[in-house]
Specification:
Number of helices: 5
Distance between the termini: 116 Å
Radius of gyration: 44 Å
Number of domains: 2
Mean pLDDT: 80
Helix content: over 70%
Strand content: under 5%
Amino acid sequence: MSRKGNFGKQIFSSKILLIVSLIILIFFSTNLVKEIINRRDLKKDVRSLEEEINRLESRNNELSQLIGYFESLDFVEKEARTKLNLRKPGEKIIIVGDEESEVNTVQPIEQDISNYITNEIVSLSNPERWWNYFFKVN
């Protein structure tokens, strides 16, 4: 029995067993550290994806509300009033503006443009107009 007891003491006290157990411990600890890092990265990814989902859901709700507004009669009425200059029966439209600025700015420009267009058309023949269209520097 003493021989078996000595053999057990020799194995547990040997340097080979110590080295082998250290190698096994290092192997398992590196795998454990890698797994912990992977889990942490996965949790970060999950959090960022959840934040993006929340952001997209709120954007989707905003767009749904905007679509609802575009389909409403209020929007249709507003667009008809502003873009098509329509009015309700019995309604009177009043446009307030500065008469002096309208007369001074609008009419001279319109007259200059009409004079330029008529002079240009009358003074140039068709081939000259084509020549100017393709080769004129201005």
